[in-house]
Design a protein that fits this description.
By secondary structure, this protein is mainly alpha-helical. It has helices at about 25-40, 45-55, 75-100, 105-130, 135-145, 165-180, 210-235; strands spanning about 60, 65-70, 150.
């Protein structure tokens, strides 16, 4: 007994209009360049906030040399921590903004975000030093006079904090793309998935009632005709027997 098998319907081929447009290489490079420039110039905000929020360290002069007013002041370490926290927050913000602007992501966008973040950290560092107190300590001591405290210039002792912005931006952007980014369409099933198993064969169409009845009568008449032919051959005498 054979097993009936009905082949599955053909898988519809998606229309070209339904597929999302694939950006060209030139468009990807353009998007990456725009992202890099926008993120790099946002480093000015980092320098401004760092110069404003960083704790101050004060010097004092005795007329011959310059000394720390408070030797136990941790303001120099606090300046590094302030830079790190501001850069970390701006890195997270830039990663979110770039994702919202370009949800599909792409290698060019990620590279633009990473290089732009490095440039933003460097620009913010130098811009914060320029906005802070003068780096000419001797001239500042002469300007204020003897035994008068004055603010020390900003310093960045731990240069590793410059990586806070690019690492946070790239990590947040890739995480958002991986969770909320567009998904690739599911691949179509393989062609051999629709073939029947080796033991299955298609069922032949049912015969009409009249044809089935004629076939049955022909099958019943076939044995009677055979028996009649056999008996005729046995009883018939030979016709060309030679005389004795």
């Amino acid at each position: 007994m054979t097993e009936a098998f009905a082949p599955p319907p053909p898988v519809p081929v998606p229309d070209e209009q339904d597929r999302p447009p694939t950006p060209s290489v030139a468009q990807d490079l353009k998007d990456g360049a725009v992202v890099m420039l926008a993120v790099a110039f946002s480093g000015l905000l980092l320098g401004l906030l760092w110069a404003w929020l960083a704790p101050r360290v004060q010097y004092v002069s005795n007329g011959e040399a310059v000394f720390l007013r408070d030797t136990e002041n941790e303001g120099r370490i606090g300046a590094d921590g302030t830079f790190f926290l501001i850069a970390l927050g701006l890195g997270i913000l830039s990663g979110v903004v770039v994702f919202l602007a370009r949800r599909s992501g792409g290698v060019a966008v990620v590279m633009g975000l990473s290089f732009g973040s490095v440039l933003a950290a460097l620009l913010g560092w130098r811009f914060g030093l320029w906005l802070g107190p003068s780096r000419d300590v001797v001239a500042a001591a002469r300007a204020v006079g003897k035994d008068v405290p004055f603010d020390a210039p900003l310093q960045l002792l731990a240069y590793g904090v410059l990586l806070a912005w690019p690492m946070a931006a790239v990590a947040v952007h890739l995480g958002l793309v991986g969770v909320f980014g567009p998904r690739e369409p599911e691949p179509a099933p393989a062609w051999d998935a629709g073939y029947p198993p080796p033991y299955a064969h298609p069922v032949e169409p049912a015969q009409a009632p009249d044809a089935a009845a004629d076939a049955g009568r022909a099958a019943d008449a076939a044995p009677d005709a055979g028996r009649a032919a056999g008996s005729a051959d046995v009883t018939a005498p030979p016709t060309d027997t030679p005389p004795r």
